[in-house]
Design goal:
- By secondary structure, the chain is α/β, with parallel strands linked by helices.
- The chain folds into two domains: about 130 residues, 3-Layer(aba) Sandwich (Rossmann fold), CATH 3.40.50; about 70 residues, Thiamin pyrophosphokinase, catalytic domain (Rossmann fold).
- Helix content is about 20%, strand content about 35%.
- It is built from five helices and 14 strands.
- Strands 4-3-2-1-5-6-7-14-9-12 form a ten-stranded mixed β-sheet, sandwiched between helices.
- The longest helix has 13 residues.
- The termini are far apart.
- The mean pLDDT is about 95.
């Protein structure tokens, strides 16, 4: 049976990724994209797949990845898709998951960061965008399409932000410190630093695409 959840470690900033991997129990599939596969090889005794051109790892590191990955796929350095896009496409095809967690996708190079966030616009992933969760030590980001939604508070996160990736119609926020009643935005906007009033909140909108982020301040 296909796994219902997949964790993809991509090749961005690996700070805290090893710790986050420890929060995912058995039953998850694990895929490494480029240098993210090396992190998996260092943390797990075995993982499901390694995908990328691997231009950011040494020969010795590459051998470690080969030993630990059940499937190893080398991509050409010159290609029309990123390693992250290739890994995401493989996860969708191979496992038909209900949730896809991306680790190592935030921080590091700004072009890589924006490329990872821009996955929500990719026609190839249109039907899967609502399944994607982007996570690091401080943030959990999910994409939402029009409809009625309920969100549960992450126990360790204080802030709740709504970032419209497109114009949005009739955005309603309930059970938050700063509610909103059927507001239209004709351009992308960031509504940041809201907060849950309890452990759950609801929101809805009629048109557009939202990135919803739960976050916390970095420890000093």
């Amino acid at each position: 049976m296909p796994s219902q959840k997949v964790v993809i470690v991509v090749g961005g900033d690996q700070t805290g990724v090893a710790g986050l991997l420890g929060t995912y129990t058995e039953g998850y599939r694990f895929i490494g994209a480029d240098r993210g596969a090396l992190t998996l090889a260092e943390v797990l005794p075995q993982f499901d797949a390694a995908i990328g051109d691997f231009d950011s790892v040494s020969a010795a590191e590459l051998e470690r990845v080969k030993e630990k990955s059940a499937r190893f796929m080398v991509l050409p350095a010159q290609k029309d898709e990123t390693d992250t896009e290739a890994a995401l496409a493989y996860a969708i095809t191979a496992y038909q998951p209900e949730e896809i967690i991306l680790l190592g996708a935030l921080g590091g190079r700004l072009d890589h960061l924006m490329s990872n966030l821009w996955l929500c616009y990719h026609p190839r992933f249109k039907d899967s965008v609502a399944k994607i969760v982007v996570q690091d030590e401080q943030n959990t980001l999910r994409f939402f399409q029009p409809g009625n939604h309920q969100l549960t508070k992450d126990a360790d996160k204080k802030y709740l932000s709504f970032v419209s990736m497109t114009p949005v119609k009739k955005l309603i926020l309930c059970d938050v410190a700063y509610p909103l009643d059927a507001r239209d935005y004709d351009h992308p906007v960031a509504l940041v630093s809201n907060e849950f009033k309890q452990d759950k909140m609801t929101f809805s909108f009629e048109k557009g695409l939202l990135a919803v982020i739960q976050s916390k301040d970095k420890k000093k």
